[in-house]
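Dear support,

I submitted the protein below through the web form. The confirmation email said the job was done, but the results page showed an empty box. After a refresh the structure appeared. I'm attaching both so you can tell me whether what I see now is the final result or a partial one.
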Amino acid sequence: MDRSKNITLAIVATIFMFATAAFGADNNAANTLQEELNDSVVPAQTIDEGEVFIQTEQMPRYPGGDDALLKLINDNLRLPKCVKSGEVSGTCVIEFVVLPSGDCSEFKVVRSLNTECDAEAIRVLKKMPKWKPGLQYKTETKKMEPINVKYTVPIKFAKEK
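What the results page shows now:
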């Protein structure tokens, strides 16, 4: 059972308990519902070291923020011949994983423009310095810890004017 269902059950159980107490109904039904709820509650998720998250409590951040990332891309992107000639234009989307160390790995094309543009986008993104890693609360240690987070960056290719 997922966490949102557990929260919903907890709310329903609480409302039911208050309603039965307020109207003098038998408390056994409320106690039974509370026991069922307690049995169905799953402890907080244990994070596997190899698990990759899409959304975290604190997302990874590029050093200097989004503006610095855009500057890195603009300063290093070399337009392929097909873009310079006007044959191709558009956006390719690259996905990668920000590791707990801040390094980026597992670069993958999510939306392809063409092979030349895709390769150029990956080449530029591989130049990125370490990121500030994403963080997630771990119940075992009771603190926020760095985790693997999937991140996506669109890169636009257009003929220079």
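Response: this is the final, complete result; the empty box was a page-load delay. The radius of gyration is 24 Å.
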